[in-house]
């Protein structure tokens, strides 16, 4: 590819969730099909899978978790309940802060460094109370050396995508992304420039390869493409078939061909200052 390619961030969520997810992310990162992964540090398997991340040429971040009880005890709630409490300002700020600090501590304990970025499992990082406590914790911990933060507001989505899939992407962004972006800007943290890859797993949808092409049609520099790949899936892994399909597509020659056709390159947002 030429030097004038447009950088995009290809981020795989849920590292640590289960072995088939972790194996997929490591394999794709080694082939430079990914440039970031978000870690569920509370997952019981993360302590064993974390060392594999240390030599990979990707940004490694905290996938902040308030919904999945997959390890140590915590204030985990179904997303609908969490959202209702957050928007009613009925989440206890002290409890929220403790959970954020615990997960930042676990990231340091297992990886020996600060995260390159922070986002949220099911996008909880942008919810009221959580977003304020997160920004406050990052300010205290990292000062001028801040991780970048995920902005979930979607890039312009191709009209060929099913309406309900486009609606889901906009709903995610509407659930606090603008307010979170203001806090991030005031903090002085970098953010991505656009967001694609969201679709409704529970609803009938086109094949992932076709949706991927539609998402890449309109991406800007430093847009995040969110992915959820898995090589294999246990019966308890939600939407395992979709995850396996994502891995197949991202590992294929077809993905490389799409990047070349649209003049894109997979890049690390942590290197943005030196690349733009």
Automatic annotation (TrEMBL):
Q: Does the keyword Hydrolase apply?
A: yes
Cofactors that this protein relies on: Mg(2+)
Q: Which GO terms describe its biological process?
A: carbohydrate metabolic process
Signal peptide range equals: none
Pfam families named in the record: YdjC
* Keywords linked to the UniProt accession: Carbohydrate metabolism, Hydrolase, Magnesium, Metal-binding
* Molecular function per GO: deacetylase activity; hydrolase activity; metal ion binding
In terms of SUPFAM superfamilies, this protein maps to: Glycoside hydrolase/deacetylase
UniProt cross-references to CDD domains, sorted A to Z: YdjC_like_3
The record's annotation in InterPro entries points to: Glyco_hydro/deAcase_b/a-brl, YdjC-like
Domain of life (superkingdom): Bacteria
Keyword ATP-binding in annotation: no
Kindly give the PANTHER family that the UniProt entry links to this protein: CARBOHYDRATE DEACETYLASE, YDJC DEACETYLASE FAMILY MEMBER
Under what name is this protein listed?
ChbG/HpnK family deacetylase
Q: What is the lineage of its organism?
A: Bacteria, Pseudomonadati, Pseudomonadota, Betaproteobacteria, Burkholderiales
């Amino acid at each position: 590819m030429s030097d004038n390619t447009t950088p995009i961030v290809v981020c795989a969520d849920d590292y640590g969730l289960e072995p088939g997810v972790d194996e997929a992310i490591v394999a794709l990162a080694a082939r430079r099909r990914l440039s970031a992964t978000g870690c569920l540090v509370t997952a019981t398997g993360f302590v064993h899978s974390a060392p594999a991340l240390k030599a990979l040429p990707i940004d490694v971040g905290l996938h902040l978790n308030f919904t999945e009880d997959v390890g140590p005890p915590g204030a985990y709630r179904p997303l609908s309940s969490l959202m209702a409490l957050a928007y009613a300002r009925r989440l206890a700020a002290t409890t929220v802060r403790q959970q954020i600090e615990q997960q930042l501590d676990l990231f340091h304990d297992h990886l020996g460094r600060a995260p390159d970025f922070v986002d949220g499992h099911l996008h909880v990082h942008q919810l009221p109370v959580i977003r304020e406590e997160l920004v406050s914790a990052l300010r205290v911990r990292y000062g001028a050396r801040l991780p970048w933060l995920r902005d979930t507001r979607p890039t312009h989505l191709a009209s060929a995508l099913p309406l309900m899939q486009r609606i889901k992407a906009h709903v995610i962004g509407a659930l606090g992304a603008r307010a979170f972006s203001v806090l991030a800007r005031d903090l002085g943290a970098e953010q991505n420039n656009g967001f694609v890859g969201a679709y409704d797993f529970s609803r009938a949808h086109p094949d992932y390869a076709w949706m991927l092409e539609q998402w890449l049609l309109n991406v800007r520099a430093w847009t995040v493409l969110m992915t959820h790949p898995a090589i294999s899936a246990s019966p308890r892994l939600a939407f395992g078939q979709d995850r396996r399909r994502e891995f197949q597509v991202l590992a294929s020659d077809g993905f490389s061909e799409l990047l070349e056709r649209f003049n894109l390159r997979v890049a690390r947002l942590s290197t943005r200052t030196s690349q733009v």
